[in-house]
Amino acid sequence: MGTIWKRFTALFSKRRLETELDEEVAIHLEMLTEQMRQQGMGVRAAREAARREFGGIDPMKEAYRDHRGIPRIEILAKDVRYAIRGLRRSPAFTIAAVLSLALGIGANTAIFSFLDTLMLRTLPVERPEQLLSLYRTGGWGSGYASYPQYLEFRRHAELFNGVLARSGAYKVRFDAGHNNQADFVEREFVSGNYFDVLGVKPALGRLFTDADNRTPQGHPIAILSYDFWRSRFGLDPGVLGKVLMVDEQPLTVVGVAAAGFHGVEVESRTDVWASAMMFRGAIMEPGMHWVWILARRRPEISKSRIQAAASIIMRQHLASVYGDKPDSAFRRWAMEQRMEVRDGGLGISMLREEFGKPLTVLMAAVGLVLLIACANVANLLLARGAARRREIALRLSLGATRRRIVSQWLIDSLLLALLGSILGLLFAVWGERYMLLFLPPRLGDSFSVAPSAAVLCFTACISIVSAVVFGLAPALRATALDPAICLKGGASQTAGVRFSLRKALVIAQVAFSVVLVVMAGLLAHSLAGLRSINPGFTHQNVMTFALDYPRAWKDADKDRFRDGMLARVASLPGIASFSCGALAPYQGGIWSAGIRVPGSARTAREGVEVAMQGVGPGYFTTLGSRPLRGREFDESDMRATRKMALVNEAFVSEFFPGLTDPVGRALSFDDSKPEGGEPTYIVGLVRDILHKGLKTPAEPTVYVPFHQGQVGFDPTLLVRAQLPPDALLSMIRRELHRLDPEVALIEPRTIRQRVDDSIFVDRMIATLSGFFGGLALLLAAVGIYGVMACGVAQRTAELGLRIALGADPARIARMVLRDGLLLMAAGIAIGLPLSMAAGRISSTLLYGIRPGDPLAFIVTVAVLLVIGTVSAFVPARRAASIEPVDALRHE
Q: Beta strand pairing status for 679-686 and 644-648?
């Protein structure tokens, strides 16, 4: 052990040891010289005899060094220093190689970071593999369940070690008493056993218990996240016992959750947890779905067994709640609910299902980009090897082994990969921030893709693999030569082989580029098709926003303020119209109701569920979608006792086929009996509005006056103006502050922005695919240019001799140009079938076009041929301008 330690410490004291070694050698030589002088020799003769007897000084020093340190580490250090000097001598090569790798590694890291966050990273809790998500399906909505359903599953201790419930994380007002300035935080209601089931420990104080969640209105206490405690309170332990105003509810802080835990929902970062009993609303209402259920299964119980049991539990619960209700569309719809058991260790994510496959496709795309980048760097290394052929031959002739030289080349490759990975991480951080811009505000504000340990390990792995992939083959090719022939000035024995390998790499680059460019074209065409869909309204210049009122305000106070606010806004210059609705289009403002339509065979035997929306006066005018028949609501309709409604075209097609004007017809929202209940009269027909997204066809929809709908929450306001969005928003904020600074503006967005948010996945994947396709084209163009330029350089003497013998320079140029186009054609021929297969695999991401869309393929081939021609033109022109005398003198 002592010997090893001495060898290790010797690595860091070379200068001192070398000085000591020189002194010791000098002392030995001096002693031998003195002995020779005592034998009668002169000073000069004694010194020469002493050197002869001592032997070679340099071999002795090398032997000493081998026993002094750790030879492998010292050799590695020398190789690294040699590689650094070589890279510094070739800055153009180094910059080109590092940039190519950085773009490939950075793209892979950025996409993998999203993939890791959304689909691979487990929750920071105890034994996450035992967590299950109880996902409600059927009926209305999906995912969230009712609190009675949660209590029902919690009773089954034979299946679970614990069952918890949590609401969504929503942004609410927060006031910690700092200058009475209100702010917003993400608050989440949870059951008392929430932290216990997850196995989360407190960083400070205590966490919730079941005792905190038993009494109505619960205990007014709160748990803070560690990050919130750090950012708002500076890790002050005095936060315990502090009273915070959260959504105007006084909550006493009793604890802080462990660092790194932000809740179980991937797309949100909860700041404050409160007891579920503090939730304002009909908590025990069976039809109110506001909690998400997670459970920790018993280790001996399989997931399939729990699924079978969950189905039975759900059916029994529904029968006990709705079994004795009168038959109606509502009852039938409620009885269709089911409970699906899913893995919960990765957390809850509504984005995962929507974004999972697109991320996988993007991951495959950036993998191809990295392969293209590696091929590009391999070509650069092959060209560098050709330039260093005589140097390598000289080193081999002097005794260097092929293995030694190959290892030095791999050190070069690893250094390039290291530099590329460092720069690639910077590109990845920038790319992740850019990708977050595509996410809607509800996701982008709390969704984090900060590089984790897994992401850093992934980057390190692909860097090492890349170094081996692009470095090994050029190293083997560069050393496969006969030193004698090379040193005599002959051509390399393997020049043709190396050049063929370079051509093969370029063909692979072009083939992969074809796949990426075709996919980018298909996705761009799909996005253009989505954008061309008529949503049923004109979304330009329409701003939507909601108002957050003080909790003490009554409905009458809110109505009065809202009317005053709209009146103030209407008086502003540039305002065309204004209105309100339960929620704006693409904001989820649709619910369902059972109806009967007298005279319609569709509802003669039983009621039918239709979509329903509460709107205010001028709603459709503000949206730029005036009624096709009849009229829309006015102010008098908002308080009228006579019930009335507007219906869309899909409603008429469903219930009054062949009828063009449904005005005057009646429907009933009481579907429990064939004759219906109190009639609601249709006063207008409106266009189909795609409330649920551009990809979802319009469904039969009934619009009622907002107050008649009794939606139970404050409406969204809509303002149409001939003003830029920023100017309009600034005016609204100013007027709001003048009326009452305590009222806050929530989610101000234009309708156009909401439409873009509804297709953010399509926009992101199309944009990124286009970027990756363009990057692949650039790398392929560089590859073709490099191969052709290197070929011309290697054939300088041959081409000069041809021109000297009378060959037409234009013919020489066409010959070089033809070689470049042949490489491009070969790559296209290989890439087109691969593109067809990639299109079929990704067909679910396309809307309105086929995977074999000819336009994308034609444009791709045309673009690649143009790029190939341009890339080969410069080397071809250079070949045609070779002077025979200069070429022969060069040879």
A: parallel
